[in-house]
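REQUEST FORM: STRUCTURE PREDICTION
Request ID: SP-0412
Submitted by: Lab K.M.
Chain count: 1
Length (residues): 220
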Amino acid sequence: MAKILVIDDDKGILDMIGAILSKDGHAITKKASPLDINMNKINEYDLILLDIMMPGMDGFELCNRIRKQVDCPILFLTARTEESSLVNGLALGADDYICKPFGVMELRARINAHLRREHREHLSRLVLGRVCFLLSSKKMLVDDEEIGLTKAEYAICEFLAQNRGQIYSKEQILERVLGYDSESSDHTITTHIKNIRKKLSGYDYMPIKTVWGIGYKWEA
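STATUS: Completed
RESULT:
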């Protein structure tokens, strides 16, 4: 089951899409206007279906506004087939588009294809707010920009992020990240975290919080 947000000012289309995708077991949230969306919860969805032509705020503007906040696929629903419009939408960060009118089988097939692909990608990716970990290549990105971390710095960030909210002492981080056989001391962890913070300072972002007298935790 996926959480899908559908935004379209045509109530008939909203109800039709909701009925079709609900039968596939998905949880559907329907909104008639981008202005009705709770932006604080926009990153909770697994996929967003977004109409282009809407009053107040069109789909292009909304896509441009939320693309850096959400990592899920965004698909445009459009009756406009002009190449310039579709190219513009994809350039703003949309993943695909579905032209109106569309059939039930086409809608299901396109949605399920994107959800399957997204599931496969997330097996090797961890996204937490502005941070994305590429687990297979051991890279950390902030706002889509790679941070030049050392191997140990990356390992500390990934460990804390995968256990976000939990507090770990310097000794526990040393043991879990560098291992029992490490010749480093817990002061090494302090130095690594200091360097991580320095590298992130230019982004006005610091997910590693110090819990005084106890240790560190990832809070993002």
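NOTES: DSSP finds seven helices and eleven strands in the chain.
Reviewed by: T.R.
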